[in-house]
C-alpha cells in the first residue's frame, strides 16, 4: 500500500474538528475545483474527479475525537482507505493528519501519487482555513 499524508495543527479543540469531519456533507468544502457531481449524506459521499474516476465513499469507522475512516462503497479504480486522525495537543489545539492508503501498482503510483498528494494537502489547508 502506498500511503500519502498531510499533517497540520489547527487551533481548535479536537471535539469541534471531529464534529466537522464526521459529517460527509462537510467534506465537499474541502474538495478542490476538479471535483464535481457531489452528493452526500452524513455517512456517504459520491463524486467525480475530473478526468479520473467516480468515487463513492462511506464512513466505515468512527473513533470519537480520534479517527474517521472512509472506504469505497463501489469498486474504485484501485483499493483505497481514507483516514482523518486527530490528536489533542492541548485544550485549544489539535494535530490533524489526512491519510490516503492506496493499492497502486508501479504505473498507477507514478500517475496518481502527485494528484493524491495535492488532494490531501488541499484538504488539510482548506480544513484549517474553514475552522480558523
Automatic annotation (TrEMBL):
Q: Cite the InterPro entries for this sequence.
A: START-like_dom_sf
Please give the SUPFAM superfamilies that the UniProt record associates with this protein: Bet v1-like (SSF55961)
Q: What is this protein called?
A: SRPBCC family protein
